[in-house]
Amino acid sequence: MRVHVLGSGSGGNAIVLESDRQRILVDAGFGVRTLAARLKAVDVAPDSISALIVTHEHIDHIRGAAAAARRWHWPVYGTAGTLRTYTQRGSEARRVDPRRELVLDDFTVRLVRAPHDAEEHVALVVTVNSSGERVGIAYDIGHVTERFAAQFADVDVLLLESNHDDRMLATGPYPWSVKQRVAGPRGHLSNAEAGLMARACIHPGLRHLVLCHLSETNNRPQLALRAMRTSLRGSGFCGTLRAAAQDQ
To answer: Of 3, 87, 134, 206, which residue is most buried, by most CB within 10 angstroms?
Structure first.
């Protein structure tokens, strides 16, 4: 399995999941031209993608979804709540039930209800059927419960939100109402909260941990990575740790 994070943050999110048999895209938060350029940068032809899954309806996750689906004939999958605000004209949208797994040829997708201020947001656990490898995608998460974290306890790769540093958010330029939203139970995970979830997901098979959706205003990659290393100290994690960028 190969995972390409085309960009992650409030400016746009898109992730390519690739097996030897199939490619799918999770979220399309960039315009078509930007999306095409980023796909080209990782040697992925847009017409080789067989499906687009949208996690929720916020613009940084669906900005280019409708136009890209029309241009490259991608079927789009999302929950009923997400698709209510998705522009479906000229593209094929398929409603998925978060209580059931979605099977897309070589990928089986488990949808996990996630606390966020969206209609029906889901995190994902995606299994490559031909190899058994699993990747978890959990961003735009307001808070973590033990039950939620347990859904990601057997993944090989975990893409996990580490949105903000608590101090930077508190002293930063956002209006008070926005600060409350970001830090609230339906907002985004702080570096400290991401560390708690990651530690709950550590197991011998976790090979890669990627911090996603970092705020460009209220976080820095070095802060997020430092906080995560501190949280994982003594956990036995032996995989790679990195932070995904917005513009790379």
So the answer is: 206
Q: Which of 174, 119, 158 is nearest to 237 (CA)?
A: 158
Q: Which two tokens stand for residue 214?
A: 């970092």
Supply 222's token pair.
């070095």
Q: H-helix or E-strand containing 16?
A: strand 14-18
What number of other Cβ atoms are within 10 A of residue 88's Cβ? Answer: 14
pLDDT in tens, 59-106: 999 999 999 999 999 999 999 999 987 765 446 789 999 999 999 999
Q: Which pLDDT value is given to residue 88?
A: 56
DSSP letter for 67, please. Answer: H
Torsion angle of the four alpha carbons 100, 103, 108, 109, in this order, in degrees rounded to the nearest 10: -50
Strand order in the sheet with 14-18: 2-7, 14-18, 23-26, 52-53, 75-78, 92-95
Q: Is pLDDT of 147 > 60?
A: yes
The residue to which tokens 């070589």 are assigned: 106
Whether residue 248 has pLDDT greater than 90: no
Write out the two tokens for 84.
């209510």
Q: Distance of CA 243 to CAs 18, 74, 144, 156, 162, Å?
A: 20, 29, 20, 17, 9
Q: Which residues of 178-202 are buried (b: 16+ CB within 10 A; e: fewer)?
A: ebeebbeeebbbbbebbbebbbbbb
Torsion angles phi and psi, residue 76, rounded to 5? -110, 130
User: CA-based Rg of the chain, rounded to a whole angstrom?
Assistant: 17
On the question of pLDDT at 215 being above 80, the answer is yes
